């Protein structure tokens, strides 16, 4: 069942419809979140961090809807699977890292559901946070027809046997230079790889910002890096989704 919410709080410029949405892949249930100011608006496909689809992604989706975009926040783990312990988070992300084909199918299933909800699935930018950023790069390597790919403090390593030779559109990497999980060496290596395959890209590293620097209220939140990266992201959307 869909839970329909009309958001018209004073901080919003106009009412926005928002819904939790159930869908399936291979007989497993998933529960995403869809929000849009109007039918057929350009779409941002949002991929979550390693703790699953939480209020954080929903808040970011609502912020994007206020900019005039439809947003489908995908569920890559399954309905009700929102791990809180690191061991469980590693288990669910690890399963998808080992099954890249399933990861790609889950992204495609979310896109199809977004189209059913009224989004313009021919006019899409895909973005993600942390684990979701790694999944965005998986979609880029797959040669999907999105208008752009955006990773916020995401995993940057390329799996063995993959490359960016099929990537069709621009990649935007927004990275914390003080990330203790994904190093500046990883950052540089990705840039070199994108150059080899003549991929259009932009990579920005924010000094002093650690991993998960955009997570509002988190202990690694970096206000300046969050503000600058969000501003660059909105500019990217404005250029890509016309």
Descriptors for this entry?
single chain; 242 residues; alpha/beta; 9-stranded mixed β-sheet; globular; disordered N terminus
Descriptive overview:
It is a single chain. The chain contains 6 helices and 9 strands, in the order E-E-E-E-H-E-H-H-E-H-E-E-H-E-H. With 242 residues, the chain is α/β, with parallel strands linked by helices. The radius of gyration is 17 Å and the shape is globular. The longest helix is centred in the C-terminal third of the chain and has 18 residues, at 223-240. It has a 9-stranded mixed sheet, sandwiched between helices.
Mean pLDDT across every amino acid position: 93
| Main sheet characteristics | 9 strands, mixed
Task: Look at the helices and sheets and give the structural class.
Answer: alpha/beta
Q: What is the strand content?
A: 25-35%
Q: What's the helix count?
A: 6
Spatial arrangement of strands, main beta sheet: 1-2-3-5-4-6-7-8-9
Number of strands: 9
Helix content: 25-40%
Distance between the termini: 33 Å
Order of helices and strands: EEEEHEHHEHEEHEH
Characterize this entry briefly.
This protein is an alpha/beta fold and 242 residues long. The chain has helices spanning 55-65, 86-98, 100-116, 131-141, 184-196, 223-240, and strands spanning 3-7, 16-25, 28-36, 42-47, 70-73, 120-129, 148-152, 171-176, 201-206.
Strand and helix map with partners:
Blueprint: E1 3-7, E2 16-25, E3 28-36, E4 42-47, H1 55-65, E5 70-73, H2 86-98, H3 100-116, E6 120-129, H4 131-141, E7 148-152, E8 171-176, H5 184-196, E9 201-206, H6 223-240
Parallel strand pairs: 4-5, 4-6, 6-7, 7-8, 8-9
Antiparallel strand pairs: 1-2, 2-3, 3-5
């Amino acid at each position: 069942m869909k839970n329909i919410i009309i958001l018209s709080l004073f901080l919003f410029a106009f009412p926005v419809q928002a819904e939790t949405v159930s869908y399936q892949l291979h007989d497993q249930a998933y529960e995403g979140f869809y929000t849009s100011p109007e039918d057929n608006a350009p779409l941002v496909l949002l991929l979550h961090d390693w703790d699953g689809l939480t209020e954080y992604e929903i808040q970011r989706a609502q912020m994007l809807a206020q900019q005039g975009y439809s947003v489908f926040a995908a569920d890559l783990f399954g309905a009700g699977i929102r791990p809180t312990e690191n061991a469980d988070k590693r288990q669910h992300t690890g399963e998808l890292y080992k099954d890249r084909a399933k990861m790609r199918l889950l992204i495609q299933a979310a896109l199809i559901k977004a189209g059913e909800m009224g989004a313009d699935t021919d006019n899409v930018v895909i973005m993600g946070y942390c684990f979701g950023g790694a999944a965005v790069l998986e979609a880029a390597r797959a040669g999907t027809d999105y208008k752009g790919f955006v990773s916020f403090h995401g995993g940057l390593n390329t799996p063995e046997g993959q490359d960016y030779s099929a990537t069709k559109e621009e990649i935007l990497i927004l990275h914390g230079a003080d990330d203790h999980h994904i190093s500046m060496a990883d950052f540089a290596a990705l840039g070199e790889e994108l150059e080899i395959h003549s991929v259009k890209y932009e990579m920005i590293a924010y000094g002093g910002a650690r991993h998960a620097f955009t997570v509002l209220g988190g202990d690694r939140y970096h206000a300046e890096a969050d503000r600058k990266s969000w501003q660059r992201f909105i500019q990217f959307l404005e250029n890509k989704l016309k």
